[in-house]
Amino acid sequence: MTVQSAFPIGAAPDKVAFHRTELGVILSLYGQMVAAGEWRDYGISSLRDVAIFSVFRRTAEYPLYRIEKRPKLRGKQGQYAVIGMDGQILKRGADLRQVLRVLERKLIRAID
Predict the structure, then answer these.
(1) What does the alpha-carbon distance between residue 96 and residue 89 come to, in Å, rounded to a whole number?
(2) Mean pLDDT for back-to-back runs of 10 residues, the chain (112 residues)
């Protein structure tokens, strides 16, 4: 009996996607930000080289932040990145929780 893989040996999958554990971490932060009234909507894109979780303040706007996963950068700069609305990379690294900390700081505000 032979077992065939969904992908030939040495071939890369057609699309990059977030794993369930990665989505759990991202959606946990998303829930906190929705509860704080900062974020309202999100979108997920799975492309050939990158998976993107986009965060919106309103549905019809450009994304406030993009959380990107680029597995090809795993050994170099880290496969996760948080990118601002202007295209500036706010944080990049190999650990998703550490990279998302740049957005958690947005929850901390001084109380008047």
Answers:
(1) 14
(2) 51 75 89 86 88 83 86 82 88 88 70 51
